[in-house]
Every structure is written in C-alpha cells, then in structure tokens.
Specification:
- There is one protein chain.
- The chain is built from ten helices and 15 strands.
- It is an alpha/beta fold.
- The protein folds into two domains: 126 residues, Nucleotidyltransferase, domain 5 (2-Layer Sandwich), CATH 3.30.420; 103 residues, Nucleotidyltransferase, domain 5 (2-Layer Sandwich).
- The strands form four sheets. A five-stranded mixed β-sheet has the order 3-2-1-4-8. A five-stranded mixed β-sheet has the order 11-10-9-14-15. Strands 5-6-7 form a three-stranded antiparallel β-sheet.
- The longest helix is centred in the C-terminal third of the chain and has 27 residues.
Length: 269
C-alpha cells in the first residue's frame, strides 16, 4: 500500500490535532483567591470572559480543604473548562504555596495547591501569586510595568515587555516605624485610621515605588483602589478585578509568553 502525501497529511492532522483541545479553543477556569472573597469565571484562550465572574466568601478558617470546598461550590453549574488558572494571595513557587499571610501561613506552608485542584476538579492547573496573574491580564507589554493590589494586604507584580519577573513579596518589607506594607496600608490600617489618613499614606507609598522601581507604568487594582482621592500621575491607572482575572489565560499561552513559566515561579533553591 502506498501512502500519498495527502493521505499522511490528513491522518497526521487528525492524530495530532483533533484528539486534543486545540489552544485556540481552550476554555480556562480562572480563579482569584482573596482574603475576603474567591472569584471565578471562564475565559477563552484570548482572555475574554465567556461569562460574568461569580464569587463566594472566603471561608474562615481558610484551610486548603475549606478553600477547595468553597471553589467546588463556586464553580458548580459552570460551563465545561479545559484548564485551571489560580491567583493566590501569597508567595508561590512552581504552584506550591510558601506563604499565605492573609489566609494563614500555618495552614498553607508547602501546600501543593495545583495537586489539590487537579485532584478535586480533574483538570490541569497552574497557581501563581494573585498580583502576578492580575499583571498578566492588564499590562500593555511595553517596558517595565508594575501592578499593585490594594485590599486585605498589598500585592505587587513586575513585568518586563509583558513577561513576569521573579516575584518579590514587597508587602513584607518595612515601610514605616517597623510596619510592613500590609500593616501600613492594608484593610486593618484603613479601618483604624480612616480614608483621609490612608490616602496620605498612599501618597507616600507611591513616591517610594516610583523611586525604587522607576517603572514605565503603574497599574492599581484591588477593592480599595476606588478609595484613592488624589490625582494620579499620567503613567498610573486604576484597573478592575475583572481586568486582572483575564491573566489566567496568559498562563497557558506558552508560545507568546515563553518566559512566563520560569519567571512566575521565582528562583528555585
């Protein structure tokens, strides 16, 4: 039997292509875990929302088992998906959680959250820091761009030409009188000092960030970003959580973002 080029082309295409979900047709469950709520939606491969995102209250205590149960409750009734992307509020290396100050470090140290998600939901998963995932969703891809999130704590991400740089837990660096950024401008500080004093602190923080990082553009997300009452520089912009959750699609665009897998993980030991 002689195999023509046309025959081989036809059948190789079937074997290598149609037996798998093609990248252009991927549906991605994108999850944003926060100190107060867990949000999720389904994205297409371009990062467009195929449905409005839904949310549930973050469980208390926020143990890995309780968070997995909350996610299962949240996504019940969601359309089918092929991959899972998670933005997590802590230091994450290769999808393994190292710290989770706003959920409970003792609960989360060295938890392989990807493994738990895959076992529970039956799909391949990736887990990164929540600010990193938001960064992938909002940046322009030009120059050095910084993303911060203002909420329960203070999240940060740095990207160069659209690629994640090694994650730095800036939130735990002292900023004033021995207090770190979480303690200085997080939710608890806001409740204690009120919006007026909090805004003065934020002006100080922005000056520090501008001096230290010399970014080309700064994106500001998180639930408390709407409380900023002073004029922002031209290279600063407030973004929404809906914008940030789109970053979940970028985690699966390996060809377009070849360094994402190594950079987002931060240096290994």
């Amino acid at each position: 039997m002689i195999f023509t080029a046309e025959y081989l082309n036809k059948h190789l295409t079937y074997i290598t292509g149609y037996m798998k979900t093609t990248p252009s047709k991927l549906k991605i469950l994108s999850i944003d875990i926060g100190g107060s709520s867990i949000k999720a939606t389904i994205l297409n491969s371009k990062g467009d929302l195929t449905m409005d995102y839904k949310k549930v209250v973050t469980p208390n205590p926020a143990t890995p088992d309780n968070v997995i149960k909350a996610i299962n409750t949240l996504v019940k009734g969601f359309p089918a998906f092929d991959k899972i992307s998670v933005g997590f509020p802590g230091y994450v290396r290769n999808s393994i959680v190292k710290t989770a100050p706003n959920l409970g470090n003792d609960f989360w140290k060295d938890v392989d959250f990807r493994k738990l998600l895959q076992a529970s939901l039956g799909k391949d998963a990736q887990v990164v820091n929540d600010a990193d995932m938001q960064g992938l969703g909002v940046v322009s891809g030009k120059g050095l761009e910084m993303v911060i999130t203002l909420g329960t704590g203070f999240g940060t991400a740095l990207l160069m030409d659209g690629h994640l740089l090694p994650h730095l837990e800036v939130s735990h660096h002292p900023v004033s009188k021995g207090r770190d950024y979480d303690e200085y401008i997080g939710d608890k500080a806001l409740d204690e000092i009120g919006e007026k004093r909090w805004n003065r602190r934020m002006e100080k923080v922005f000056k520090i960030l501008k001096t230290v990082f010399n970014y080309d553009y700064l994106y500001i997300g998180g639930g408390n970003s709407d409380l900023l009452s002073f004029k922002l520089d031209k290279n600063m912009k407030i973004v929404t959580n809906a914008d940030g959750i789109k970053g979940g699609a970028k985690l699966w665009q390996e060809d377009k973002h070849p360094v994402t897998h190594t950079a987002m993980a931060t240096p290994t030991k």
